Amino acid sequence: MTHRAAGTPAVHKGPGAAPRAPEIGENTLVIRVMVVEEQGLSRSALRAVLSNENDLEVVGEIGDPGRILRLAERERPDVVVVDVDLTAADTQDVLVLLRERLPRVALLALSGRWTADSLRRALAAGALGLAGTDATPAQFARIVRSVAAGNRVIDPAAAAAVLDPAPNPLTTREREILRAAAEGLPPKEIASRLYLAHGTVRNRMSAILRKTGARNRGEAIRRAQERGWL
């Protein structure tokens, strides 16, 4: 049910639209926001941006995706802002369950680098909005308000990820090595399978880490898969 001040016309939304936040005061609507972000500095930055707005209140912030449902059920936020690049394998399942248990909560997915895969995962989790980390504070606040009102918001960068995907920087041989690594093969077995020297595999893996911006093999595999490079 939509709460409004006396004399304010009702705004009718489509089916499944998230309601506006509870009314406090005569004409003020405060939107309750929960932030889910693994990186502490990023969480702090998001809290600072949101807390600077009179009509936005951060009611919870966590870095562990496994606690999303418990905190949301306790705090009953209007909007949950979640980093779609969270590394936990079951994050999407948790978000789907969140939407099932709290269907009035609007999910806003955030990413620093939208790809076709991350967009697909966000929509599959039930995200109403897709935003980029390069948005200005004012833009981000507007997106949160719009999503809270039940509107779908798609960041231009997210749409571009599908219409104009980034070129694959990995060579054919690097993709072969990374596919073998994704099967769990150690470097020596990868070298044997691909008829390469062990040192060559090690050097190619270093190049793969550099190109994907990953810190380790597992992260390189995940990033390459998300970006459609494998």
What is the secondary structure topology, with strand pairs?
Elements: E1 31-36, H1 40-51, E2 56-62, H2 68-75, E3 79-83, H3 91-101, E4 106-111, H4 116-124, E5 129-132, H5 137-148, E6 153-154, H6 156-163, H7 172-182, H8 187-194, H9 198-212, H10 217-226
Parallel strand pairs: 1-2, 1-3, 3-4, 4-5, 5-6
Helix pairs in contact: 2-3, 7-8, 7-9, 7-10, 8-9, 9-10
Write a short abstract of this structure.
The chain contains 10 helices and 6 strands.
Could you name the key traits of this structure?
230 residues; alpha/beta; six-stranded parallel sheet; 10 helices; 13% strand; elongated; disordered N terminus
C-alpha-based Rg, rounded: 21 Å
Helix content range: 40-55%
Overall shape: it is elongated
Query: How do the strands of the widest beta sheet line up side by side?
Result: 2-1-3-4-5-6
Instruction: List segments where confidence is low: pLDDT < 50 over at least 5 consecutive residues.
Output: 1-26
Structural class: alpha/beta
Order of secondary-structure elements: EHEHEHEHEHEHHHHH
Question: Which percent range describes the beta-strand content?
Answer: 5-15%
Distance between the termini: 46 Å
Average of per-residue pLDDT values: 82
Enumerate how many helices there are, as a single number.
10
**Largest sheet data:** 6 strands, parallel
Instruction: Tally the beta strands.
Output: 6
